[in-house]
Design brief:
CATH topology of the largest domain: Beta-Lactamase
CATH architecture of the largest domain: 2-Layer Sandwich
Largest sheet: 5 strands, antiparallel
Order of helices and strands: EEHHHHHHEEHHHHHHEEEHEHEHEEEHHH
Number of helices: 18
Length: 442
């Protein structure tokens, strides 16, 4: 790692008094990290013992670093040094790249990122490739039309990629060999712990995904790390395409204007007919060979397929429209529409939900920009899965009951049969939970 010198009066990287062969301060002169550190310290009028104390190392160790020894400061040490030496943004960037290997920008105080118009333009211009921007904790900050059409969950308040992938039925059914993808996501979370482990939002995300017993098992048995999924080729079944399977190449970039965020473009390609090679010419699912994989999780792959079949029956292709008002958006549900104001409030934001009895679909409208309302037609089950049960009141409960009836088969006998099946599944789940609760409280 080298950094360009702004102005040096004398001396070299070893700290001697020998004059440099190149006139100091001339453009194109480069120095090592030790000399760069020495320059910063002198510019801040800080002596070596003070710098050593800030780093929590001995004076001798610090002197050796300025003379050319290779350090590997931690994130906390970099932060302390940057504050002591009053480093500007570019200097802190150089310090972090040399020691930590990445640029860890401090997130906004209120936790809300401002996505610049130029970046939004770039996201929109990736059409027809689904594209999104997420922060360092995988919270979705922006997305283009293709992303919203294929995966409407990104429109939800506090939409988060890893939470969706690891805790929802839709996420499980989307990924082929879900258990292998889950292991990669766990490794990404572990990597995040090494860079900003004290982040409350990250801790909450980890707590949420570990409520899934399978994720807890992976967490306890796989200690590897991975930073991103750039270049991964994988198969996914898309709910809004009638669960059609497509092949996706994931491309991950870090925008210079928001270096702690991920700019992700998913290139959609057709899978080869023989199924042995992926879109980049490599062996199918080669990336997954390094992922955690137990016998139980292989069995769950079959359960994922069954779950996908069930969800396929509930969802259909979604349409995406852009209208200039909330009234026009809701009117898409037809004249016999049933507004769902209480459920709209639970979903959050500026969401507007309305049930269309004639099509047995729900119009889901979101204000994407001033005078621009995005409209999706989704199955009732897509809304039901996203309603927090603990928040139900009289009005919202009545609306959810009405919506649930439309999610069931139309004919009464078939609806009753489906209800019995669901109740049996819930009874079994509750019975197991009660057994575990009793064992834990003995």
């Amino acid at each position: 790692m080298v950094a360009k010198l702004r102005a040096v009066s004398s001396g070299n990287a070893a700290g001697t008094n020998t004059a440099s062969a190149t006139p100091p301060g001339v453009a194109g002169q480069y120095i090592g990290f030790g000399a760069m550190l020495k320059q910063w310290r002198k510019a801040a009028d800080v002596i070596q013992p003070t710098a050593a104390r800030a780093l929590g190392i001995s004076e001798r160790t610090y002197r050796n670093i300025e003379r050319g020894a290779t350090p590997r400061f931690s994130q906390a040490q970099c932060d302390a040094l940057a504050q002591l030496l009053k480093l500007d943004q570019d200097e802190r960037h150089a310090l972090l790249l040399y020691n930590v290997g990445t640029y860890l920008r401090t997130p906004p105080p209120d936790g809300r990122h401002e996505v610049k118009p130029a970046l939004r333009l770039l996201i929109d211009r990736q059409m027809p490739s689904p594209t999104y921007l997420s922060d360092r904790n995988w919270n979705i900050l922006a997305y283009n039309k293709a992303m919203a059409e294929l995966w409407p969950w990104v429109m939800e308040p506090r939409a988060n990629l890893i939470r969706w992938a690891l805790t929802t039925a839709e996420g499980r059914a989307t990924y082929h060999d879900w258990h292998k993808h889950a292991a990669v996501f766990v490794r990404m979370l572990r990597f995040a712990l090494t860079t900003h482990g004290g982040d409350v939002d990250l801790q909450e995300l980890i707590k949420d995904v570990k409520t899934n017993p399978e994720i807890q098992r992976i967490w306890e048995s796989d200690n590897d790390l991975v930073e991103h999924r750039d270049g991964h080729v994988f198969l996914a079944s898309i709910p809004t395409l009638g669960w059609r399977t497509i092949e996706i190449v994931s491309h991950v970039a870090y925008p210079a204007i928001m270096p702690d965020c991920r700019f992700v473009v998913m290139t959609w390609v057709e899978a080869e007919s023989d199924g042995q090679r992926d879109a980049l010419g490599g062996a199918r699912d080669a990336w997954a060979n390094e992922s955690h994989n137990t016998a139980r999780e292989r069995d769950r792959a079959q359960e994922r397929c069954a779950e996908a079949d069930r969800l396929r029956d509930e969802d259909s292709r979604a349409l995406h429209l852009i209208l200039d008002s909330a009234d026009k958006a809701v009117a898409e549900a037809g004249e016999d529409r049933i507004p769902l104001p209480a459920l709209s409030r639970l979903v959050g934001g500026d969401c507007q939900l309305a049930l269309s009895p004639s099509t047995r679909k729900v119009v889901w409208a979101v204000e994407e920009a001033p005078t621009q309302w995005g409209v999706m037609h989704v199955a009732p089950s897509s809304v039901i899965r996203r309603i927090p049960r603990q928040a139900l009141s009289g009005e919202s409960r009545a609306e959810l009951k009405h919506l649930t009836r439309f999610a069931l088969p139309t004919e009464d006998t078939s609806a009753v049969s489906r209800i019995k099946q669901l109740l049996e599944e819930l009874d079994q789940e509750q019975s197991l939970l009660r057994e575990i609760q009793e064992e834990l409280t003995r």
